[in-house]
Amino acid sequence: MPSTTPDAPAAAAAPAASPAPAVLSRPVSWFLLAFGVWSWVIWITFAKNLWKDGSGLAFDDAGDPTAYFWVHLLLAVTSFLLGTAVGLIGLRGVRALRRTS
Question: Which of 15, 22, 38, 69 could be joined to 65 by an S-S link, Cβ 3.0–4.6 Å?
Fold first, then answer.
């Protein structure tokens, strides 16, 4: 078994270069922003329809939420969060491109 001593030179002694920041193109930035907005429009409509469901899928006869309701509400909330994150990335890209041009 090889021994390591404190006097041995470190293999990675050179400082790591910091990576250059990623730059999004104008079409990609606008696509991400549009996707974020689209996600909100679609899932708000879905959540409203889920809440007003009269078919018996989302609410049982007593008016209590069913498993269908909870699963689809979780899907909607997750999509809101992901759509927001993607839209914010696109917005930051659009703003960065406007500052440089």
Answer: 69
